Automatic annotation (TrEMBL):
InterPro entries: GalU_uridylyltTrfase_bac/arc, NTP_transferase_dom, Nucleotide-diphossugar_trans
PANTHER family: UTP--GLUCOSE-1-PHOSPHATE URIDYLYLTRANSFERASE
Annotated EC: 2.7.7.9
SUPFAM superfamilies: Nucleotide-diphospho-sugar transferases (SSF53448)
Reaction catalysed by this enzyme: alpha-D-glucose 1-phosphate + UTP + H(+) = UDP-alpha-D-glucose + diphosphate
Name of this chain's protein: UTP--glucose-1-phosphate uridylyltransferase
Presence of the UniProt keyword Transferase in the record: yes
Assigned keywords, A-Z: Nucleotidyltransferase, Transferase
GO molecular function: nucleotidyltransferase activity
Recorded name of the encoding gene: galU
Chain ranges of the Nucleotidyl transferase domain: 9-244
Assigned protein family: Belongs to the UDPGP type 2 family.
The protein's enzyme class: transferase
Pfam family, one: NTP_transferase
Amino acid sequence: MADISPVTKAVVPAAGLGTRFLPATKATPKEMLPIVDKPAIQYVVEEAVSAGLSDVLMITGRSKRSIEDHFDRAYELEEALRNKGDSARLASIQESAELAQIHYVRQGEPKGLGHAVSCASQHVGDEPFAVLLGDDLIGSSDLLLKRMIEVRQQYGGSVIALMEVEHDQISKFGCAAISPTDEADVVEVTDLVEKPAVEDAPSNWIVIGRYVLDPAVFEVLEKTPPGRGNEIQLTDALRTLATTPAEHGGGVRGVLFRGNRFDTGDKLDYLRTVVQFASERDDLGAEFRGWLKEFVEKNGS
């Protein structure tokens, strides 16, 4: 029988160069770009914690020190805020340091998502674990990761998040061939293709940045040659696991996600994310929406 150990650890790859946001990311990690007043990566860690994962491993690289600083204590700043009696801002900066037990390991050189995940093997060991990509934010009311962990507990193997897109968008993503199960939101993944041509795509369901992986993925990644872009693709390793017997950690299932996903790795989607998050804030939303309405009426075409 497959091992159904509980999922307690999260891995957050954050070693990318962020070239799509240059020059802003020349000295600032893309994961630290703010969504209103909080860096994108904090939302990702909060999501992991809300799903019950308080042990978080960041896979970082050069010029990512500010991520570590953000999740550390800032004693001088805390003292300055305390002396001013600014308890609200004091609580906000202490929150990030107290969210989770956060560890760090450097990827060394960017060889792809599969290689980044393999860097977590020593920390994760023989336990199942979640992977959350910092470019993807999931709506706080959409309990995607929690549902994925439930599916892992029920079936074993690995679980990926799938989202349906228009046919002309498929070639930007990894794409899954799927077959239904008895549960409406769960499918069996029979094949995976990384960024296929539209005519070669097996479905309209793309892989988004949430995974719950069996530790068997590490051994598969060791044997996975570089694929698309001359990088070690996690998609290729999952394709192997999809046809691996369950007793060896195989089997891949997908959770069909129909909630809110925000791609902060794309400039236009990043701007949409900031606008939506600001619009929904209790302290900013009403005034911001009013200004936005006036702006659109004045400048819209």
